[in-house]
Write a structure and sequence with these properties.
The protein is mainly α. 49% of the residues lie in helices and 2% in strands.
Length: 176
């Protein structure tokens, strides 16, 4: 049986490669990027993942951190206590709690086309969604439910804009 070509060829050292740079690239590739800035700043590369999280006061394994009741048939229920560890970096947990407690503004908006569409439907048909679905300007070929959902979205995302639009549609009383 014939032998594959160049299978016994001796490997040569490649002098053109920078071994130090290749090692750094390999280390960077195998280590994950930590997205959270508080955890990233407190992270110690010399420690393991579980030890780092334990020092920060975070749980690596939630099953071990919370006490679990073990039921047995012969004896009464036993409560296994969670191991108590010392937290050397409590500021990380405090910063994470502050960030979680901050109120975030709902930044969802609708496109200008969709706003114009909703205003047209309200102006022409008021609250009759079946009539809206039959309108020739129903660009999206929406069903009454879809139109209603879009109008509710418009009300939710642009409250002030919606209120001013509705007040402009209301008939003005004529003074005599």
């Amino acid at each position: 049986m014939p032998k594959a070509k160049k299978s016994g060829k001796r490997k040569k050292f490649n002098y053109n490669l920078d071994r130090k740079k290749m090692k750094k690239q390999a280390i960077k590739k195998c280590k994950p990027r930590i997205e959270n800035s508080q955890i990233r700043n407190a992270w110690d590369d010399k420690k393991s993942t579980s030890r780092n999280l334990q020092d920060m006061g975070l749980a690596f394994d939630p099953n071990r951190s919370l006490p679990i009741q073990k039921k047995s048939l012969t004896r009464e229920d036993r409560v296994t206590k969670a191991p108590v560890e010392t937290v050397t970096k409590p500021y990380v947990v405090n910063q994470l709690e502050e960030e979680a407690n901050r109120l975030q503004k709902d930044s969802k908006t609708l496109s200008s086309d969709l706003i114009e569409y909703a205003q047209h439907m309200i102006r022409e048909h008021k609250d009759n969604f079946k009539e809206m679905a039959r309108d020739e300007k129903n660009y999206y070929q929406d069903t009454p439910k879809q139109i209603k959902r879009k109008l509710i979205e418009y009300q939710r995302c642009h409250k002030e804009h919606y209120n001013t639009f509705m007040s402009s549609l209301a008939p003005q009383p004529i003074d005599q």
